[in-house]
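#structure-requests
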Amino acid sequence: MHKLKLVVMLFISLIITDLALAYCGDGKISADEDCDDANPWIGDGCAGCIYEPEYVCSGEPSRCYNLGQVYGWYNAFALQHFGAESERLIYDKNGDALTFVVSSDWVYPSENSASIAFETNLPSKAYIEWGKDSSYGSRTYVEERFFYLHLHHLTGLEPNATYHYRIVARDERGNVITSEDRKLKTIIYSNKVEIRGKGPHILNQPNMVYLLKEDIVSDTRAFTIDKPGIILDLNGHTVVYDNGKPLLPEGKAWNEYYYSSYDATFGVFVQQYVGAKNYSILNGRIMQGKNSASGTDLGIGFNPLVLRESGFEIAGLVIEHWGNDSSSIIANYAGTGRIHHNIILDKGTKVTNRHQGIKSISGSCQQEVYNNLVKRAHHQSIVRTGTEVRSNEIHLDSYDTNSFAIAPCEDSVLVRDNKIFGTGSMPMGLSWSKGNQTKRFLDNIIYFYGIEPNQPVKRSNEYGTGYSIWGIRITQYDGSSNPYENYLYRGNYVILKGEAGARNLMGTAIASCLYVKNVTVEDNTFKVVSLSDDLRESGGYGCFVVHGGRPGASPVIYKDNRCISNIRFIQFASDYSSGSNTLFLNNTFQRITPLSARYAPIQIGYWIWDSENHKVIDTHLVGDIDLKGYRFYTTSTEANLSFSVGESIMVRAMDGSRPLSRMELTVFDSQGEIHKATTDIDGYARIFLLKFTAIKPEGTSSVQELPRGPFTVKANGYSGVSLPSSIRGVTVIDFAAAHIVPHIADIDGDGKVSTEELLACIKLWKAGGVDLKSLIGGINAWKSLF
């Protein structure tokens, strides 16, 4: 009996011990916890085993660290506003279930450490369990907020040894996923120099691995790369630079820092003109020290990395600095290279020269930039960098004007799958660059949330109080003839929300002018929401804000987009500029509530500027929307303003039984020419028929709404053919006979295709009496009735 009692007590003890592992407060961190400091207190960084918004923790039991006034504020703000739970469209784009994005995996094993980078499709907090076998036993610690991109370092490893690891990620809803068991093997470098002791260190043996064996601190510069073929492997350690009195103090000219061989303070500096090419900097942390000096108005001085030669790889680094006026990575004269799978945290607040800008990565067109996590940038992020800029996560905490997340270089470039978030003075998602080489912006997320910007410290007041938010931008400055050609924006999600003080909330702000050509915005989703009626009368608000201001503008085409808004879908002109000749085709407008007091589906005009000849065709309306509820902002007699609303139909141009291939068709009514289209090889073309034109001609202050039609179509060399008002679907026009031929499916000739007529057409097609294109035309005509 006594033995049985002992067994039962032991069993109960084991159950209690096992259950205790699942409880918050035992000092052990489980998969659903950020931290566990083994106490119930609030205000020490770990409350209820979740990080408090301005803290991050490590260790078991957890020890927590305040993130500081500037970054702590932004971290708390991002936690509140930029998760998938705050905006359903994130799930709409990336899916509901948390998964790993395997294509983004990157592993770098060193002698005593390893860098492991990965991506999740939804924002998550993640850590890595690791050990000599699949029971693991060691772990990294959870990031301070939910990110898409993750980089962790395993440290204290043995050389030439195999380690098991697995990745654990948890989304905002508490869903946890775990990777399969994975393996890596550490290495032993055969040709290396081990680095210990206080810096600065000059790396001057060519084709050598320099391996850090301990954390190091330097009062000034940490490393200078002075010869070619060098690998600087930080081996999971931390390098602190600028920790004491610099040899070149603050206040010097930019060139004194940039061209100083060894005296200027930087984290790592790659010498120019000594052949120090083909180098790598990998696998560890670079942090600015307690001196925290500031750079110049060009962003040069006291930077973590300055790269001045080509053939480089920068990967697996965590870079953290807080000196003002100091860019994170300068590589604009470095030539070819790759910057990938890094974390950059800029804690600065000052921007002396916003025209030059303070950047996360300042590079060149010969570089690839991918899978970098910018936890915070206080001005600009990836600028003039990369033939391909992909899969980066960028957080802008804008302290001055024109805070571009991504500004492409002037060569042909692909910008895809980036996630961009931000707030502050003037965050901007996708910028522009001059030239006629193709620039494609595909499948990016831009999510900005605007509030009164002077938090937690004062920001730029260049444009007075308030803030401006721009999603996608192409600007042609007044008097300029720079070419901006061959831009494609497709598959992007642009989400803008603004509280009180919004000077602008613009999903797109694209110039339409003589030198902006072949620009297409298609199949994107825009959501622009004003959360306050504290707006400027003359500001730009809505999914599409048309800028430009030059006569003879080439049409910017917006097609197949979705616009969700409570304030405005289209705005032709703001107090920034005005444009003409845009085409909106087959877009969906969805009105959401509560409506802004300044709501209008379309607004046009500002001051004396012209904005004319816009067309809004085949618009799908969701919610109680009347496009005739437009607003003319100006009634100045000097402004020439107009836009038209209509629909399109497909026609087939024939000469008897012969298709009119590659034929130009012109549509006009009593008010003049409406549209030109060219047929394809089979004679098909889509033409526009307008319902009404809203116009305020120059010389008058009155707005008129003019009904359009009846319509005539003319082909070169043929007489015009009148179109019946009931026309729908695909219509055949016999220009030789100068009349409309009823569609083959339109049996009764009433210009419509009923369900019974369509079924008869399908039967005829099955029997071989109708070609496929004619059948499709019949289906389109039938669908147009609904």
